[in-house]
Design goal:
single chain; about 240 residues; 9 helices; 5 strands; globular
Length: about 240
């Protein structure tokens, strides 16, 4: 597997004000060769520019949402939440990637999100096929996920098969392979996908409020994931 032929999937889950599960699933893929390698280069450059840790300043006692979902990306900037968010947003803005997003469990006629994270992946794959199959985009051969229990792995595979059945002429989906990382430290593109998924969930839970990270993520969207009228339902942020 070469990095420029990998797409990365991630998800985030929460609840609305009525306790109904809501979720965001994202699929991120590179638009230029070496895009994922450049994330590491960019992180190191930003560390030199703005991530120097001042001696004697303690870390905040409570982990931020970014350290929770992307500890490697947030680590150099974790002295303040503002430094984390602006720095990770800048990193996300510079990443040469596109993102397909599916949200479930929102909107005035919403259906509760499924208990698993897998099936909404089919919607992301539909957008991925439309965008990444064109001659101007890089083809990806692998969709990479963080480690998952066997039940979730099976449902991801079911999502891929469902997408293939709905688009039988897609050579991209026909040849696409799902792979799952072993437990442990995740590669930077996986953390980047985690950031995008969590920022979308936070956007839903804050009734459409924006922040620097979500604005940077939204600039990468290949589709509009938000159902018409979803903002009419007030959502509350899930606690961890």
């Amino acid at each position: 597997m070469t990095p420029d032929r990998m797409a990365f999937v991630a998800s985030a889950q929460g609840v609305d004000g009525e306790g109904v599960p809501v979720s965001a699933v994202v699929l991120c893929w590179p638009t230029v060769p070496q895009a994922w390698v450049e994330v590491g280069y960019c992180l190191r450059a930003m560390l030199v520019e703005r991530g120097r840790m001042l001696p004697g300043i303690p870390l905040p006692a409570r982990a931020s949402w970014l350290r929770d979902c992307a500890p490697q990306l947030a680590a150099p900037f974790q002295r303040t939440a503002l430094a984390e968010e602006t720095s990770v947003a800048a990193l996300l803005s510079r990443a040469a990637m596109r993102v397909a997003v599916t949200v479930v469990g929102v909107g005035p006629n919403r259906v509760a999100a499924p208990s698993s994270r897998a099936m909404p992946l089919e919607g992301c794959l539909t957008t991925f096929d439309r965008e990444a199959s064109s001659a101007s985009k890089r083809d990806c051969a692998f969709v990479v996920s963080a480690a998952q229990p066997e039940s979730i792995r099976a449902e991801y595979l079911d999502s891929l098969e469902l997408a293939r059945s709905r688009m039988p002429g897609s050579s991209l989906l026909r040849d696409l392979q799902l792979t799952f990382l072993p437990s442990g430290t995740e590669p930077l593109p996986t953390e980047l996908a985690n950031v995008v998924a969590t920022s979308v969930l936070r956007h839903l839970q804050s009734h459409g409020d924006t922040d620097a990270v979500f604005d940077a993520a939204r600039s990468k969207f290949a589709n509009d994931p938000f159902p018409r009228g979803w903002g009419k339902t007030r959502l509350k942020r899930a606690t961890r």
